[in-house]
Amino acid sequence: MPKRRLSARLSALLATLVLGTAAPLLSSTPASATATASCSSYPSWAAGRSYATGDIVRYTDGRAYIAEHDNPGYDPTISTWYWEPYACDDGGSTNPSGFVVSEAQFNQMFPNRNSFYTYSGLRAALSAYPGFANTGSGTVRKQEAAAFLANVSHETGGLVYVVEQNTANYPHYCDWNQPYGCPAGQSAYYGRGPIQLSWNFNYKAAGDALGIDLLNNPGLVQSDASVAWKTGLWYWNTQSGPGSMTPHNAMVNGAGFGQTIRSINGSLECDGRNPAQVQSRVDAYQRFVGLLGTSAGGNLYC
């Protein structure tokens, strides 16, 4: 449940200050310009190298990105205010056709889902983190998509719940020690969305990363499906929570599904604390990789 998970994360998140340091970013759709050059013909992106507006680079996933604003070498898959995916001839090395999960497969995974959680909303959110389920081999991409959706399924009862059900928790998610306070009201930052975003500092950090003012408008996470999905992808791709790595890195670097659990709710579930909850997540993951026609890999438990 959101209160248990996010309360347990509070001290770790405040200690690392990860959530308050993101540069202002903006999600965007892929570049509409038509490119004839091969993706491999562009210079490789390098962290810390200065780029001017219009520069085109090839990222580590083989895809090309164009600089929308001058920047000192921000990561194209995170800093989407500064970079935008750029269409080029990749010779089939990437997956330009879209998400590895079809709408039919999505509906099979979530037969009783709330109508709020649309497949189109998920697809629209993918532009915020182009590396998600689009890094590595076809097997790795499917495993990451299944891992994200399995954890999401566990967090929301199969994509049934859009908001935290225990309203008594609502006033607890305001940390007045933050300099920006709780401008939307003390009870405004309760759990919402596929990974149940909670706390004012989480709304601030996610909003900064996505170019959306969620601190002042937290209700967008329960009224706009694309925004809701983006907050889930924000946590998945950028936050390690009580773990040692982001869930995205856990899947693409071979650490295994168990490490995604640790990063999401490890302080309350892993190391034998709540094996039933861990098993629920693993069961969902194994079902979903089966639907996608791939293997689960190793290290399923935490």
UniProtKB/TrEMBL annotation:
It comes from the Bacteria. Residues 42-86 form the Chitin-binding type-3 domain. Residues 1-33 form the signal peptide. Keywords: Disulfide bond, Plant defense, Signal. The keyword Signal applies. Pfam families: Glyco_hydro_19. Coiled coil: none annotated. Gene3D superfamilies: 1.10.530.10, Carbohydrate-binding module superfamily 5/12, Endochitinase, domain 2. PANTHER family: CHITINASE 12, CHITINASE-RELATED. This is Chitinase. It comes from Streptomyces griseoaurantiacus. The lineage of its organism: Bacteria, Bacillati, Actinomycetota, Actinomycetes, Kitasatosporales.
